[in-house]
Design brief:
Layout (H helix, E strand, L loop, with lengths): L11 H16 L5 H14 L15 E3 L5 E5 L25 E3 L6 E2 L13 E3 L4 E4 L13 E3 L4 E2 L15 E3 L6 E3 L12 E3 L4 E3 L14 E3 L21 E3 L21 E3 L6 E2 L13 E3 L4 E2 L15 E3 L6 E3 L13 E3 L4 E3 L14 E3 L6 E3 L2 H6 L11 E3 L12 H27 L5 E7 L11 E4 L2 H11 L8 E4 L4 E6 L5 E6 L2 H4 L2 H14 L10 E7 L2 E7 L4 E2 H5 L2 H6 L2 H20 L5 E2 L8 E3 L5 E3 L6 E2 L29 H17 L4 H11 L6 H4 L3 H4 L10 H17 L10 H9 L14 H5 L2 H12 L1
Parallel strand pairs: 2-3, 3-5, 4-6, 5-7, 6-8, 7-9, 9-11, 10-12, 11-13, 13-14, 14-15, 15-17, 16-18, 17-19, 19-21, 20-22, 21-23, 24-25
Antiparallel strand pairs: 1-2, 26-27, 26-31, 28-29, 29-30, 30-32, 31-32, 33-35, 34-37, 35-36
Helix pairs in contact: 1-2, 10-11, 10-15, 10-16, 11-15
């Protein structure tokens, strides 16, 4: 943990004498000795550097030029200001050469002194994430050399004055998360070097001034969560460098400007939660770099332009809660390599769900409910998403899973389907038994997708019983399971890599001869085959088939190139490739898999062995849950008692004194796994602290002293992207909730997945200022809610 050590304090007289001597020493080499001494005295008078006796240029956060004059004050994250962060004692006029002043998240209180206007050489000012109140002093607008101005996440009030137009050198202006009111000044258009403008989460009123179109270098414009009204100015189409246009949660009316297609560099378009009318412009299809298209909760009409389906970079589309009509464009299926979020719910869409939607295997959240859709739900979508993604308003949709209306079948077809559902499990079990005790050669069951379509458009899976050919292919591919094809060992048996004649690569988990004779291992083997033949999910490893015979027992899996998450985290080189975004996706994938097993299967399935060793990664670092040897079904109205099973260190504490297993056992394992992914190692010591804090007062000193940044994997730099940092905070908060001692107080995995899909506002303070105690009590989100209620 990166906890700062306490400083040794010495009498003030000694400190003052040492500083004065240091200043005199430096000043003898300077052309302006009085200014150096003045700087030293000003720093000492502020009370922020009490206890330091070495030369002022060696004090933490202080940078000097060759003459010894201070050019930069950038306090480190763990630096604690003295005198309760009093801002009024800092004498700005004593620093004529300062270029950068960064007092971010330093606990500053009070108002910004007007003397700040004397820093004529200042280029970078960052006072964000403090408790600064009052007005922005008018003298600040005289700092014509300012390049970046960051005052976000404070308690500043009053309108933005027209004199802001004097800061013509400004490239970045951040005033978000304050209480600033009034309108956006027209003079803002004079800042022709501006690239980043963020006024979000304030109380701004009035309309968007057309003068913003003069900011031809602007790349990011965020005015969300204000009270801005009026229409979107057509002139904004001139901002061809714009990458982020976020105007959500305002009172904006009128149409989406048809010239929106001229914003070729746009990454994010967020107009959600406004009063926008009209249709979605077809020319939006020209924005080839668009990744997020968020237009929900407006009054949009017309159809969804088919050209949106050709925006190959799109990851999220939210058009929900509008009045869109027509068919869902089949072209959206073309986004199979990028799209992760699709919400078309609460509209007036008609027709059938396009079969091309079957291709959207990367989509993590899909919602088509509350429309007027009809017909059969594509089979893959039924397997990947719960019924509530479709039902509700769509009264004429039908499908096979429980929770969906059955599709209209003839009486004979219906009977045959029911007969198949009854007989297939029994037939499979019979073949298992016959294969083990009777058949002289191995029986392999191989699952393939039929290329045919039935009368009603239902795609069926066909089980082929041509075991002889498949078995020969596998033994030939592995040279009769030669050790050179072995890629690891599981809980039981070895794992082999095999390339079949078709070119397909698979993984084989093969029992040793002596293991096949062990009843417990044989039962586990059969259990894994049984469980994986029942379920299918994009984040659960696919079982292609299995072979069952006394002399040869193996499972045939989808091959995962990167191996286990445990191995990746244990390798410094591979762990560095696993950046924060990939880690968040892994956590989300595992959460979705467990939620599917717990809440979307006919009978809930619990894994009982959630751990980093049982998470497999493909070449794109997409996670799949594996090793279902200890998994079991939960039967309603049953105690569901069982023997202790699972991976040590991930087993829920209640199983130490009870054998009643529930879904909350998996939830606990997910919490441990999430912390392990965030920390880059097994969180043993932290789990002990969490357990100890739960039996003490809610303000446990140990968790209060540990910040989130203290526990992040040191092999990665802390997340700098705002959205990624917010994601890290969210998953850590959810992990701590999953680790609660009482099972009933842990969230269900369904709740966890819903939380992961909610876009949260920017964090009110940086990671190095967020304690684990705040996350345990979810105080960080209480701060966000207070901010939201203020708007």
């Amino acid at each position: 943990m990166h906890l700062s050590l306490p400083f040794r304090f010495i009498p003030t007289l000694v400190v003052a004498t040492a500083v004065a001597l240091a200043a005199v020493t430096v000043s003898s080499q300077s052309q302006q000795p009085w200014s150096l001494e003045q700087e030293a005295r000003a720093l000492l008078a502020s009370g922020w550097w009490s206890g330091y006796t070495n030369h002022l240029c060696e004090w933490p956060g202080i940078t000097c030029n060759t003459a010894g004059s201070i050019t930069e004050i950038s306090l480190p994250p763990d630096f604690q200001l003295g005198d309760d962060g009093n801002f009024g004692k800092f004498n700005f006029s004593c620093f004529p050469n300062i270029v950068r002043l960064r007092l971010r998240a330093s606990g500053l209180k009070g108002s910004i002194p007007s003397e700040i206007g004397t820093l004529s050489k200042l280029k970078h000012l960052d006072l964000s994430y403090n408790q600064i109140t009052g007005y922005i002093p008018s003298s600040l607008w005289n700092l014509k050399n300012l390049v970046t101005l960051q005052l976000s996440a404070n308690r500043l009030t009053a309108p933005i004055p027209a004199t802001i137009g004097r800061l013509t050198s400004l490239k970045s202006l951040s005033l978000e998360w304050n209480q600033i009111n009034g309108s956006i000044p027209f003079e803002l258009g004079d800042l022709n070097n501006l690239e980043h403008l963020d006024f979000s989460v304030n109380s701004l009123t009035g309309s968007i001034p057309p003068s913003l179109s003069h900011l031809l270098k602007l790349k990011a414009l965020n005015l969300s969560m204000n009270k801005i009204s009026g229409v979107i100015p057509h002139e904004l189409s001139q901002l061809t460098q714009l990458q982020y246009l976020v105007l959500s949660s305002n009172q904006i009316s009128g149409n989406i400007i048809p010239e929106i297609g001229s914003l070729f560099n746009l990454f994010v378009l967020d107009l959600s939660s406004n009063s926008v009318i009209g249709s979605i412009p077809t020319d939006l299809g020209n924005c080839s770099k668009l990744q997020l298209l968020l237009l929900s909760r407006n009054f949009l009409t017309g159809s969804i332009p088919a050209r949106i389906g050709y925006l190959s970079a799109l990851t999220s589309i939210d058009l929900s809660h509008n009045s869109l009509r027509g068919k869902a464009p089949s072209e959206l299926g073309s986004l199979r390599n990028s799209l992760e979020y699709l919400d078309l719910s609460h509209n007036k869409l008609t027709g059938t769900i396009p079969p091309s939607f079957n291709l959207l295997h990367r989509v993590r959240q899909l919602n088509l409910s509350y429309n007027s859709l009809k017909g059969h739900i594509p089979t893959d979508l039924q397997l990947l998403f719960p019924p509530d993604a479709f039902v509700g308003g769509n009264n004429d949709l039908c499908g096979d899973p429980i929770g969906l209306p059955s599709c209209s079948l003839t009486r004979s077809s219906s009977k045959n389907l029911e007969l198949v559902k009854i007989l297939v499990p029994g037939i499979l079990l019979a073949f298992l038994i016959l294969g083990y005790f009777v058949f002289p050669r191995c029986l392999l069951l191989w699952k393939n997708k039929s290329s045919g379509v039935t009368k009603n458009g239902d795609l069926f899976s066909i089980w082929n019983f041509d075991g002889k050919i498949a078995y020969k292919d596998i033994t030939k591919a592995t040279e009769d399971f030669d050790m050179k094809y072995c890629i690891g060992s599981g809980a039981y048996g070895r794992v082999y890599r095999a390339q079949l004649p078709s070119g397909k690569v698979v993984a084989l988990k093969k029992l040793h001869h002596w293991e096949a004779e062990e009843p417990v291992l044989f039962k586990s083997f059969k259990n894994e085959a049984r469980m994986l033949s029942k379920i299918r999910h994009r984040n659960i490893v696919k079982l292609h088939g299995f072979c069952l015979h006394r002399r040869c027992m193996f499972l045939v899996y989808e091959y995962k190139e990167r191996g286990s998450l445990f191995s990746v985290l244990g390798n410094d080189v591979e762990a560095a490739v696993l950046d924060w975004t990939k880690r968040l996706h892994i956590i989300e994938g595992v959460a979705h898999a467990l939620s599917y097993m717990h809440h979307n299967c006919t009978l809930p399935i619990i894994h009982r062995s959630v751990s980093s060793s049982n998470i497999l990664l493909n070449s794109d670092m997409v996670a799949s849950l594996s090793d279902f040897g200890t998994a079991r079904l939960l039967y309603p109205h049953s105690r569901n008692r069982t023997v202790l099973a699972g991976t040590p260190g991930y087993i829920a504490p209640e199983l130490a004194h009870t054998f009643a297993v529930t879904e909350k056992c998996d939830v606990y394992g997910f919490g441990v796994l999430t912390l392990e992914i965030i920390m880059g190692r097994y969180p043993g010591e932290l789990l002990s602290l969490i357990s100890a804090s739960s039996s003490q007062s809610s303000k446990s000193p140990s968790l209060l002293q540990i910040t989130l940044e203290d526990v992040l994997d040191p092999r990665l730099s802390p997340p700098s992207n705002r959205q990624t940092a917010s994601g890290v905070v969210l998953v850590t908060t959810l992990a701590l909730a999953c680790l609660r001692t009482k099972p009933k107080s842990r969230p269900a995995m369904e709740q966890v997945t819903k939380e992961l899909l909610v876009r949260r506002p920017q964090l009110p303070k940086p990671l190095d200022s967020i304690s684990l105690q705040e996350l345990t009590n979810q105080e960080i989100y209480q701060v966000e809610k207070k901010q939201e209620n203020r708007v």
